[in-house]
Amino acid sequence: QNVTQTVEEEKPEPPTVQEIKQKIEKYNAKVTNGLPMKLNDDGSYTGFIQVHLKLRRPVTVPAGIRPPSIYDALKEVNLAEMTDKRTSFYLPLDAIKQLHISSNTTVSEVIQGLLKKFMVVDNPQKFALFKEMRKDGQVLFQKLPLTEYPLYLRLLAGPDTDALSFVLKENETGEVEWDAFSIPELQNFLMILDKEEKDKIQQVHKKYERFKQRLQQTLKEARGKPG
């Protein structure tokens, strides 16, 4: 059962550098994937988080643009700015993206970084980062504030992703705010919905056509039986 929590927890007092050092040592002792956290001289630290993409609606990307290469990333080439043409498609459901971030990286920056990596040009406000926890057979989701620090949450929970994982989902605030979408985005949504509707109608037709054929065959066999 999935349960979404919307109540924000009260934040404890910030830990000291010594406390952070002890937590990192304890965290690294449990790491099995070769990706430990590293404490910097200024008291900040770096590490890795994994984010599951669970987007139910299509995203908007530049049309006809190849995925970014390592060269593009090193040169900070923004392929999305090289064309004004846009198209929409569904990102693979439950895809996982690994990010190297610092203790100063906020939820807002993580969302923007993910969108940039996938060349998504939608408004970042359309998305939200959730923390996923498993407790007593339930899967609990809690929306994270934009000012939260995901790496600190990862440090507190330890490296076990069953204890805590991060999920990128649509920013559900009730009714869909269609005004936030551009005309091309809305047109693409209509095209996708029209295709899904036609596919669904075709599936229903095929289902009842098979049912009709079986019924006719049964009637034919029944008429051929004596008595």
UniProtKB/TrEMBL annotation:
GO terms for molecular function: zinc ion binding. It comes from the Eukaryota. GO terms for cellular component: microtubule; nucleus. SUPFAM superfamilies: Ubiquitin-like. InterPro entries: RA_dom, RASSF1-6, RASSF5_RA, SARAH_dom, Ubiquitin-like_domsf. It is found in: Cytoplasm, Cytoskeleton. This is Ras association domain-containing protein 5. It comes from Calcarius ornatus.
